Amino acid sequence: MARSESVRLLDVRRWPPPRAYPELLDLLQERDIRATFFVVGRQVERHPEIVRRIASAGHAVGNHTFSHSEPGTLSARELIREVRRTDDLLTPILGGAPRLFRPLTAS
Ligand SMILES: [Zn+2]
To answer: Domain for residue 42, yes or no?
Structure first.
């Protein structure tokens, strides 16, 4: 049976602590699960090594704004700026601009 499970993982307003990632990524690998991590630019800035590790494990990485402000509090212009800023952080890590963006939604 071919397994190509895909899960949308982690709307990462606050990341799990960096030390949790090796175990999490091992777990996904064991189960042959490809996940998409929507990451917030501010956290990418703090922990680029985590994004690098996620991407090199074959998972997709998407842009989820820079600051994860409350939905509706950013103007369109500010939102675009945030998305670009996060793209700029992700591009060198991913070796290309991220192709996925997840907008902020009221939870
Ligand atoms: Zn979110």
So the answer is: yes
- For the cut 50, the answer to whether the pLDDT of residue 14 exceeds it is yes
55: domain CATH number is: 3.20.20.370
What values do phi and psi take at 32, rounded to 5? 60, 45
Residue ranges making up the domain that contains 92: 36-107
CA of 66 to the centre of ligand 1 (A): 11
The whole-number pLDDT of residue 17 equals 76
pLDDT band at 41 (very low <50, low <70, confident <90, very high): very high
Neighbours of ion ligand 1 (CB under 5 A): 11
**Does pLDDT of 66 surpass 60?**
yes
Beta-bridged to residue 9, according to DSSP, are 37
Residue in the block written with tokens 């939870």: 107
- Is 72 part of a structural domain of the chain? yes
Q: From ligand 1's centre to the CA of 16, what distance in Å? A: 14
